[in-house]
Known about the structure:
Elements: H1 2-23, H2 26-36, E1 44-51, E2 54-61, H3 69-81, E3 85-96, E4 100-112, E5 118-121, H4 123-126, E6 131-135, E7 141-143, E8 145-150, E9 155-159, E10 182-187, E11 195-208, E12 214-221, E13 233-235, E14 241-248, E15 261-265, H5 266-279, E16 285-286, E17 289-294, H6 296-302, E18 309-315, H7 320-324, E19 331-335, E20 338-342, E21 346-350, E22 353-354, H8 358-366, E23 373-380, E24 383-390, E25 392-393
Antiparallel strand pairs: 1-2, 3-4, 3-6, 4-5, 5-9, 6-7, 8-9, 10-11, 10-13, 11-12, 12-15, 13-14, 14-15, 16-25, 17-18, 18-21, 19-20, 21-22, 21-23, 23-24
Amino acid sequence: MKLRRVLLVVLLVAGFYFLTQHLWTAGSVAALVERYAPSVSSGTTLVSSKGPLGTFDLNVANAQPAYDAEEQNNIAVYKRVTPSVVNITSTAVAFDFFYGAVPQQGQGSGFIIDKQGHILTNNHVIDNAQRVEVQLFDKHKYKAQVIGVDKMHDLALLQINAPNLQPVELAEAHGALQVGQKVFAIGNPFGLSGTMTRGIISAIRSVRGPTGSAIDNAIQTDAAINPGNSGGPLMNSRGQVIGINTMIASNNGADQSAGIGFAIPIATARAVLDDFSKYGHVRRPTLAIMTLEIGPDLADQIGLPSDYGVLIQRVLPGGAAEKAGLKGGTQRAALGNTPVMLGGDFIVAVDGQEITSEQDINNVMNAHKTGDQVKVTVFRGRRRQDVMVTLGEAGSEQQI
Length: 400
């Protein structure tokens, strides 16, 4: 009985070996398996493609997988905002010694803010241009008129005459932005229209813009921003515009994203738009003074009564500070190779807010309008006093 079982096992093993080694090839076995079990898994199908180079067996998905919640939001933001983002081409004329007048072109982005065809972008995108052309997402092109520029904030307002425009939604001007929140950028980097990138708010800080003027509360992001993105929108996860992409930082000289980009906050842009609407130009409030920032070491050397503040070197003639009776410096001195004027009023607060830098004063100015009255707290010599100043309108000269 046991011998029969042993013989049966030997026969089965020998038969399987003979079939697999002599009668069936590997391809035959695969074909047999495919015939009776065509689905490799519940979500894929094995598809064979035969040709001169042989047979390719490919696992092909039976259906497109469902998008997760994050992907659905990304797609929704892109579809919602892309029709509002435009490609801007500016043409300027440069003089060449051999060829005479030579046209030069630059590209950037912008976004539609109303159905009347107004478009917001960076001033450096269209600066000194003799012709500005706007291309919409549907590839239609229109000649644009420059309505207003604010070089200090690097903003420009254009207008085109086009039908069926879809404006963006601007975020609440004073809505709190948080480091770490998700952001999207849409623009035309290197002329590649309709490109969206994403990242987070990396920081909120004041930086120097392309023209050297300060961008207060600039939004720093790691969303990829490259040449051509300038003037395009930076948006929150709901597709609302929170900033205008304006520049990138790079320590290797490469004119491309290094993960550090900056956007002008929408609150600044809305204030500029408000001035354009009311006055036709930007009315930036100012004390009309030239100043020197003071820290503990310098305060000790000069003999000032406070470790931090802003020393008035000069009051501009006819300006707000002069009219209010603030005093500039009268004693010539030098800090290294830099000439300075000492002996002027030493500002330590404005409207009760401590002043430790010129940026602090700029922040106060951004919260006011031309014609507003502010209380400036100064030390005149060793005596502390308050001076009421009616803010004037800034001119082209660098001042605060």
